[in-house]
Amino acid sequence: MAHLFIFGLGYTAKRIKAQAEALGWQVSATGSDGDVGFDDPAHVTEHIARAAYILSSVPPADDSDPVLDAYAESLNGKRLGYLSSTGVYGDTQGAWVDESAPTGTGRRTARAEADARWLDHGAQVFRLPGIYGPGRNPFDRVRSGKAHRIDLPGQVFSRVHVEDIATGVMAAMTGEAPAGAYNLGDDLPCSQNEVIEEACRLLGQEPPPLQTMDEAGLSPMARGFYAENRRVANGKAKRVLGWQPNYPTYREGLISLL
To answer: Which range (22-36, 68-82, 205-219) has the least confidence?
Structure first.
């Protein structure tokens, strides 16, 4: 039985764990819901040694990567995956971007540095845009009255359903794809306003009014999100991994969640 070891059993990694177990993999993980303590080197290195694949979903901390800082030597020669972010590309003013584009020019410099370190270590690096799925989606914000429509003409984002991330990672784990970066995003980058409007339509509610960022009272993190504008191309993941999203646009994703 193949063994998958996950650093950081969070929202997305739990979906990957479920899909791996459905295919017969044995899975162990660090994190509050995991069964291995990150700060127990003997236990961690034991799991690393017997794992057929090791996946990290741990974000940078203090401008460095905690997993590589602690366990880089033990990871040498292993098959590795890392959940990164399309934020490494920075702002492209709405233009399409693929894995050949430069990284490190945006607001997420620590993430870009971690991304580069994992690539140097021979990992498959999965660059993820905005993630949505059960318990984390526009319906929750609309129902709670926290949904916004921001008046920023031409603003475009990419997004991906969490289950499609899991199928992409599984395709990489179980196939012969080489190390390198892979964008896992859906086929229809669009404005956040479009998604909120469709969620309201499906719920039979009026969409919230258009507002400026000041009127909406957005947090600094949310303002940073709106400061970047790009369309993320997923062709490499389709060609090399053989991946096809089950939810190719937000429309299918929202219907599945409703």
So the answer is: 205-219
Number of domains in the chain: 1
Question: Is the Cβ–Cβ distance between 83 and 12 less than 8 Å?
Answer: yes
> Residue 157 pairs with which residues in a beta bridge?
190
Can you tell me the distance from the alpha carbon of 84 to that of 8, in angstroms, rounded to the nearest whole number? 13
Q: Is the pLDDT of residue 27 over 90?
A: yes
In terms of Cα–Cα distance, which of 89, 84, 78 is closest to 114? 84
| C-alpha count within 13 angstroms, C-beta hemisphere, residue 211 | 13
Residue 105 pLDDT grade (very low, low, confident, very high; cuts 50, 70, 90): confident
Angle at 127 between CA 125 and CA 132, to 5 degrees: 130
Strands (E), 26-147: 26-29, 53-56, 80-85, 96-97, 124-128, 130-132
Mean pLDDT of 83-94: 95
* Beta-sheet strands, E only, within the chain: 3-7, 26-29, 53-56, 80-85, 96-97, 124-128, 130-132, 149-150, 159-161, 180-183, 210-211, 231-232
What whole-number distance in Å separates Cα of residue 244 and Cα of residue 235?
10
Structure tokens at 17: 């764990």
Q: What is the CATH number of the domain that holds 99?
A: 3.40.50.720
Alpha helices in 76-161, H assignment, sequence order: 109-120, 138-144
| Whole-structure pTM value | 0.96
φ, ψ (nearest 5 deg) of residue 161: -75, 140
Percent residues over pLDDT 90 in the chain = 90
Range of the domain at 84: 3-257
pLDDT tens readout for residues 53-77: 999 999 999 889 999 999 999 999 9
